Amino acid sequence: MTYCVGIALQNGLVMLADTRTNAGVDDIATFQKMSVWEAPGDRMIALCTSGNLAVSQAVVDLLDEGVANDAGEVETLWTVSSMFNAARLVSRAVRAVYSEHGPAMRAQDMQFSQSILLGGQITGGQVRLFQFYPAGNYIRATEDTPFLQIGEHKYGKPILDRTVVHDMPLEDAVRAALVSMDSTLRSNLSVGLPIDLLVYRRDALRVGARRRIHDNDPYFENLREGWSQSLRAAYQSIAAPEWMRDI
């Protein structure tokens, strides 16, 4: 399993993904689940994947190699003209992989599991963030719902629900995403370090920051300990219920 989160803000985009894959407690490996297509001055597109690793890699390869559109023209994430067309391309790639591998996977009792986050900006357009389901259909982030998650999302969602708003600074969104990831790391062994972080500032049309965070990263260690201490302090500051005095 995995955990990935994307936050689309007024001022840009934050995306975060873990790297753990496993096929059992004794078969754990590290694979990069974040892919980036960057042509400075023209486009910055990032994609995170969750689910079957073979399916994920096949989809990413198709997005590089190209998939035909309705007019028969081959498009890649390097050539699409807008983020909307990028989303349509991802949908076609997912369905193409399903058409090729789905029947064989069903014959082996294997589930076609695939979830994707796609975020970025292409010159002339706005910052966009999409979440794709196994059928290739998708939703997009809005001002009311500025973050999207895939994988083991339940542990980190309460943090984002309480903190993330569309007009928050990028720096605050980075902290929220990292705390969300830390909560997931602590509660689920199928999510693990290192984690990949990408920060994009609106209209820059290039990656602002891209960082792989390991378990000895000084900032992440301080954030994890600071968050734990703050939680304990907040918990201890809440008064006990009055009815407990009689027990």
Strand and helix map with partners:
Elements: E1 3-9, E2 12-18, E3 20-22, E4 28-30, E5 34-39, E6 43-51, H1 53-65, E7 67-68, E8 74-75, H2 83-107, E9 114-122, E10 128-132, E11 138-140, E12 147-151, H3 157-163, H4 170-187, E13 195-201, E14 209-213, H5 218-237
Antiparallel strand pairs: 1-2, 1-12, 2-13, 3-4, 5-6, 6-9, 7-8, 9-10, 10-11, 13-14
Quick structural gist:
The chain is an alpha+beta fold and 247 residues long. It is built from 5 helices and 14 strands.
Characterise this structure.
The longest helix is centred in the middle third of the chain and has 25 residues, at 83-107. The radius of gyration is 20 Å and the shape is globular. It has helices at residues 53-65, 83-107, 157-163, 170-187, 218-237, and strands at residues 3-9, 12-18, 20-22, 28-30, 34-39, 43-51, 67-68, 74-75, 114-122, 128-132, 138-140, 147-151, 195-201, 209-213. α1 (53-65) packs across α2 (83-107), α3 packs antiparallel against α4 and α4 (170-187) crosses α5 (218-237). With 247 residues, the chain is of the alpha+beta class. It has a 5-stranded antiparallel sheet, with helices on one face. The chain has a 5-stranded antiparallel sheet with strand order 5-6-9-10-11, with helices on one face. The relative contact order is 0.20. 34% of the residues lie in helices and 30% in strands. It has a single domain (3-215), classed as 4-Layer Sandwich (Glutamine Phosphoribosylpyrophosphate, subunit 1, domain 1), CATH 3.60.20.10. It has 5 helices and 14 strands.
